[in-house]
Amino acid sequence: MWRVSRRALTQTNLLNKNFNNLSARSCSHQLLQDVKSKIERKRQLANEGGGQHRIDSQHKKGKLTARERVNLLMDPGSFVEFDTFVEHRCTDFGMAEPKNTFPGDGVVTGHGHINGRIAFVFSQDFTVHGGSLSSANAQKICKIMDQAMMVGAPVIGLNDSGGARIQEGVESLAGYADIFQRNVLSSGVIPQISLIMGPCAGGAVYSPAITDFVFMVQDTSYLFITGPDVVKAVNNEDVTFEDLGGATAHTKKSGCAHGAFSNDIEALQQLRDFFNYLPLSNKDEAPIQQSDDSPDRLVPVLNTVVPLESNKPYDIMDVVLATVDDRKFFQIMPDYAKNIVVGFARMNGRTVGIVGNQPKVASGCLDISASVKGARFVRFCDSFNIPIITFVDVPGFLPGKF
Predict the structure, then answer these.
(1) Cα dihedral value 46, 48, 51, 55, nearest 10
(2) What predicted TM-score, i.e. pTM, was given to this entire model?
(3) Spatial separation of the C-alpha atoms in residues 107 and 112, rounded to whole Å
(4) What's the pLDDT tens digit per position in 9-51?
(5) 317: burial class by Cβ within 10 Å (0-12, 13-18, 19+)?
(6) In sequence order, what DSSP letters do the residues of 364-392 get, joined into one string?
């Protein structure tokens, strides 16, 4: 018989134990690789949104995708996304099928920096169910709004949504109620900016309408309660998308929008510039920018800009541009109620609000539209401690029938 020493048995046991450990580590490593592969696949699906064919359709319309917009708006490498893999929970009407489920659920949310300053942003993805709002979608938006209130930072919405997701019924509408509540609670506490970048209808327009500033993109963005087809069915009236809720209608007639830009890229670049005028919250000061424009410089043009004849008009913009730093003035609502001029500029590097009567239009008389335009702007400046400079040349309030 063979005799085995204790030493040999001990060595054998150690070898078996090491082998088992190596096998366990190998299995654990393989499992980890599988999890990583699944995560990367999910991330890739989230980046693709509704698929390449829908992305191509966006580009053919001259529109960027939700992620492209965020990347252009935010400083390179600064955006941190929230809830990338969230999916809707609806099981009715075939929504549980894989073809109707997308990681991110049609909205990109997170925070990043714009010119080195923090901002929270949500960007609706029209390639996923038309950017419609689901319960999960609303929770993602509410989350970044809550975070923005907590840290004291602006919220920017890049809106491109057809409204409520009808497959979810009242749950989608409840999501809008949650967003509206946060819009109200944030008012006067943090700046809220909406950039309309696609056809928005129903609930998708109510929230932007109660934010501080609304900007649109010409020819591709629309704001209306309901679309032309419903108007045709109810009133037997033929209206186009542009006439019903285009950029021209809202920047010139309704006053719902504060400005319009020619395309997505210009809109996002102008929004970055506009952001520099605003404080992060009502507890923060607006950023100060260094300027070579001397605060005690002489402005000879102001000696002659106002004509001697009281009935002869002049352009108040000549006065504003000659007064502010570097002749830079970001005008708000330039095409609505032109008898008053409002906007942001800088004096000695500090943000100021400008309010001025425009003698060039209706002799600068105040009517209802001009009064509402001026009052809304003054309220914003008051809420965020922005000094106001007023250029007054007004004969009075315009009398007559409304």
Answers:
(1) 130
(2) 0.87
(3) 16
(4) 565 565 565 556 655 566 666 777 777 777 777 777 777 777 8
(5) middle
(6) G-B-HHHHHHHHHHHHHHHHTT--EEEE-
